[in-house]
Amino acid sequence: MADIIQLLPDHVANQIAAGEVVQRPASVVKELLENAIDANAATVKLIVKDAGKTLIQVIDDGIGMSTTDARLSFERHATSKIRSADDLFNIHTKGFRGEALASIAAISHVELKSKLDEDETGTHIKIEGSEIQSQEVVVTPTGTSVSVKNLFYNVPARRNFLKSNNVELRHIIDEFHRVALSHPDINFSMFHNGSELFGLPASNVRQRIVNIFGPKTNEKLVPVEEQTEVVKISGFVGKPEFAKKTRGEQFFFVNNRFIKSSYLNHAVNAAFEGLLRDGAHASYFLYLEVDAKSIDINIHPTKTEIKFEDEHTLYAILRAAVRHSLGQFSIAPVLDFDRDANLDTPYTFKDKHAAAPNVEVDEMFNPFKEEQASLKRSMTFKKEQTAAWESLYVGLESKGNSQDQEFSQVQFESDDKLLSMFDEKDTKSGLQTFQIQNKYIVNAIKSGLLVIDQHRAHQRILYESFLQNITIEEAVSQQLLFPLSLQFSTIEVATLQGLQKQLEQTGFVFSKLDHDDIEITGIPVSVAEVNVSSVLEQLINDVDNQVPDSHFSQSDLIAKSLAKSLAIKSGQKLTSEEQAYLVNSLFACKEPSITPMNTPTFVTLSNDDLEKKFK
Ligand code: ADP
Ligand code: MG
Question: Cα 50 from chain centroid?
Answer without folding.
Answer: 20
